[in-house]
Amino acid sequence: MKILSISATNIQHSQKNSMSLLLCNKIAEFLNCKEIQCEVIDLRDYTLHPCIGCGKCFSSKRCSADSDFNKIYNKITRSDGIFFISPHYAPIPAKLSMVLEKMEQITFLHWWKDNTYKSELYGLPAGIISHGGGSDWALKSYKAMVNDTIANALDTIQCKVVPYDEEWNTGISIPVQRVMEDSDIFPIQEYDWPMIDQKIKDYIEFFLRKI
């Protein structure tokens, strides 16, 4: 079994301390304890381009102008499940949007010609974890803007989004515990890692039941 975990952040200055990347590494750590291989993909390592609707992917099912997207997409098609870890931007990071829109285009063009078409990612279990700079009060807005946005795209791509519970039917969201200010222009965010660890472990258990 092989799982992918995609860190969607665009922010360069955070480097290895990116919350998205830290959460991806947590997922990999927990899955490795179950002897399940998990590869982490950091979208900052890829140069991606937006879909221009040229239609060339209809014949190849790959983008003719974006080799980095094709590398990511090939990894996704060979996986048994995927996690998307995304911060709240406006509403989601640009590179993640590029990945989703190209996967949507590849699927939609074939479905439009044949409504019985099943994509290469048909039924692929997909987990979604969002996070932002707000505490518990902000989580429902993150769900609406990040989780639900990603889930809508994955529905078109024919993936199967894994719910956390009835209310959180498009994954989970992570709050900050405290936000501090120092001389830097960026805020310093502290997290309740024991709570996060437990929530991710619970979500992984739900996820693995879908595989």
UniProtKB/TrEMBL annotation:
What keywords are assigned to this protein?
Flavoprotein, FMN
Q: Give start and end of each NADPH-dependent FMN reductase-like domain.
A: 1-136
Highest taxon listed in the record's lineage: Bacteria
Task: Fetch the InterPro entries from UniProt.
Answer: Flavoprotein-like_sf, FMN_Rdtase-like_dom, ISF_SsuE-like
Quick check: keyword Flavoprotein in the entry? yes
Kindly provide the name given to this protein in its UniProt entry: Flavodoxin family protein
